[in-house]
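Could you join me in thinking about how sequence relates to backbone shape in a protein? Would you write everything just below, so we can both look at the same thing?
***
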Amino acid sequence: MKGSKFKLILIVLVLIATGFGAVYYYAATKISPEEIRKRALVEIQKVFPNAEVTLGKIDFKLGTSINFEVEKLNIKHSTGDLLDLQSFLVKIPVFSVLTGHGSVDFKIQKPKLSYKEFKKKNNWQMAMGENKQKAEKTDSELSLVIPAFLSNIRINFDMGQTNLDYYLQSGEKGTLAITTFLIKNLNLKEPTAFEVRSNYSQDKTKLSFLAIGEVHLNKLLKGEDLFANILINLNDIHGAALKKPIQEVKANIKITQKPKGDLLGQWDLQFGDSGKAKADFSYKNKNLELSKIESDISLANLVKDLGLKGLEDFKLGKTSFKLNGQIKLLSNNKILPDLSFSISPNLGFSINNIKGDYGLEGTFRNKKLILNGKGEVLDGQIKTSLNGDLNLMQLKDGFEGLSPMSLNIWAKGIKFTKQMIRDSLYKKEPSVSTITTIKNNGVNKDVVPLLLPKLRLDMFLDQIKIDDRDFSGKLRAITSLNKLVLRDFDFNYSKGRGVLGLVSEIDNKGISNQINFKLTDLDLKGLGVFLPEVFQGLEGKFNGVVKGNVSKKSDKINHDITVNVKAYNGKIKGLNIKERLDSIIDNMSFLKNKNIKLPEKIDGEFKKLLLDGRFKTNNYDLKSFSFDGPDKTIMFTGNGKLFPNSKSQIGKIDVNLTDKTGKITTSLKRYAGVEVLPLRFEGTQLNMSPNYEYTLTRLAKKALQKKTSLAKSKAKEKMKKTIEKKAGDLLKSKDVKKLLKGFFD
């Protein structure tokens, strides 16, 4: 609740007490208790003309002091009770009454107050009314009732345990339990002191509250500026978002209220050891302005005071957040800032072995936000610039209502290692706070609090090193809430060129990336640092297209990528072609003991490679591939399907091998009459072994076809000669061959 609400209630209580004080004097000399009750009831009713006032039995005792007791006081409006006092005890020393000095003590037992906000007024304003003539008449009557010698008397209030029920227009409601409410030396000439203590507790929020200060009430009655000086201490603050209690927050507030209700003042805030903030403020015509804002918050001490965890990767050191300027909050729901701020010295960090520092400065004037940052990371420099229109009133709807902003990033000389990139893309990590699970009606639901602001991102990269290869390029990306669209990212890398398109979407379980990658003479050895493990053994100059989806959801990485590429002068590591062929030679009877030795360079090196396939998380579909090794070595083509994550499904790859050394080809021709060796590799996951039965069966069939064909050829030749002879004998012709030409073809 705002301090002005408490002030209003306080002033009303003072007026009630003053009314009672005026009556007390006459009560001691002239009037019976019942007459006192009636007169007090009239005076209170004047303050609350639109309320129903109930005043209980009044009793008093005369002696060296007047002990005056009110049994009950209730002020009720049509909106409900405003004030309910069960007992009201007043002690007035006779000497103080006669001399105009000393103190009058009020003891109020467990009062209950209610404050309700409505569209235009609150319940106290409704009860008091707005008839100025009536109010002026009341002040006049009071001035007549109060003798001049009472103006020096000091009044002390002790309200003890006080409960204040509040209902705000925003919908917030609750009860503020005040353990101590003291007013000391309430008078009409000198400052009046007060003290309020409370232990606030609601839901998971708890704190101890202390407010002490002084107020010049005599200015109020004279129609002059009302001054107040308040010191507020908040201690042992607990909250749902706090890892540990905040020990202390101090605020020193100076307030001046003008006769027409305008407020002026200054506040000075001390937040534990974290830092301080101060500003001047004014409230006029429902417009609030904060000016001369100065704040300096130590980030290291702030993290310590709040008990924040998960920031171990940041080296806060002496870095502080500074804010200066002014801001206006207008009654028409407009916010007009004129602020400058900075984070300096640079904030250090070390995240996943990426070390660097970063500093920030900016301005926020009217709706225009400008942020400029710079720092060093991975032996290079980085600069950022963010600018655009920001309407703070739209933040209540999250990023959805905000206007798009522009972000430029320049990076130069940064060095990335292969391991660093692969860890960030493919390393599986436990669930983090960006995806949390909550229970809703007994059902677990994944919630992604992370949403992207609306941005147009332009990035310029120069002299970047990726695994010791030169990289440069530029890109433009558009972000909107849960989606990132990367327009053609055109870059030069390792003497080649690539164009990458990317669409990333965040849903309630993770992130999905749709990629479209065009390659032109791109060295795939360098590109391999970004690709799944299946591509890690590839080298060479590649041309073609790689496209598909890579997603990470619920800590599971899935990919569905189609590859249609041509490569030249490269290598496929891990094939162990020579070892596999040596094993095949040793297991083929027609090749065994032929002393066939293949050259070492056939092991993965190629002059030309063609690949058309689809690589999913659970299966690799090799529609066609062609491998042409170095001169006078080998060439093979084939197709097949693998199941890398299954221990039960059998993968198969069929390969047609051509041995350009001639060592295998010679034996093949002799055995089966063919120059191509048919092979099949089978196995689970990526553990593939040759199926010799498949090869021998295929070759045996070819050998049989060869023998059958040879036998048919010999029989055909023999028949031809016999017919020619018989025909010659029968026809007695020398031209028999010409006559039978084509008959046996």
The longest strand covers residues 335-351. Residues 692-731 form the longest helix (40 residues). Residues 51 and 77 are 5 Å apart (CA to CA).
